[in-house]
Amino acid sequence: MHEASLAKNIIEIISANTELTNGVRIKKVNLRVGELAGIYYDSLQFYFTEMSKGTSSENAELIFENLPIVGKCRECTNEFPLQNFEINCPKCGLSKFDIISGNEFEIVNIEVE
Ligand SMILES: [Zn+2]
To answer: Does this model's pTM top 0.85?
Structure first.
């Protein structure tokens, strides 16, 4: 149900930004999503398609850009993407770090017809 409320939010944001532009049709919505956000893209597109019927977003396609989880080493402050759960800093080799991003969910822009 996480995806359903996100779909609703996206549609509301787009509607709020396009209601003054008469007859505009949204073609694509570019989104940036962190790997930690735990979003199922297919599911989000499904809810979006269902819920956007009759709005300016009807038939729009969601385009996802996947953002890696980024860790910051506590020892040398190097920032590095955490891939395949490899958790050693590539610079100093230690494995003490803080996660500084990976939870993002943002609308980058929308493309209209
Ligand atoms: Zn380090």
So the answer is: no
